[in-house]
Amino acid sequence: MPDLVFDLGGKEISCGMTKVDRAKLYGYVDTQVLDDRDRECELATLAGDGKTLIPMGGTAFAYLSPDGLWRNKTDLKPVNLNGEPIVPVISSFKAPIHLSEKVSIDEYLSHNIRIVYRLHSEAGLGEIEQAIGDDDIVFAFDFSYRGGLVADRAFLLKGQDGAIWMAVGKATKISFIGMQQQAVIEDEVEPDEEEADLDFGMM
To answer: Exposure check for the chain: N or C terminus, fewer CB within 10 A?
Structure first.
């Protein structure tokens, strides 16, 4: 994995990244499916005719024009909902990331985090630790691993042990309904004799 370069007050800091793997934290279960002869089964797709089996790797995506003509992926141009062109973003590894925007911990908690990295550097991360300080403040910036149409939101945080973590995610979409929720009032109905004697433990 390449290093990220941060620009903090004009000084560039190169950082390595170690992904926090869920399998290492919680473990994982690997399911192996065998046939009646103890041979390992392979995944296949049943075609629409209900008869043809397509082995793994036997399907692919294709791009067709409204006229049914073949189109290469390079011919496609991304647009937004209004039909306006979208300018692609470059990979965050190709240029230094400027650390200038600070946000509160509440701003960070309003995002749905999908991946976390621990940062490390041979020269140390003292400048970043000092810039973050002991307050509930984190650095925020746009991040894209490979480049693409839309960048994710990334945050730099300092753990209690002084380690620097980078959390990547997107803003959580929350719709505000109101301060109070009207309770649903249902009329109480006396259960009949059969319902009263029903023992769910027998099911």
So the answer is: C
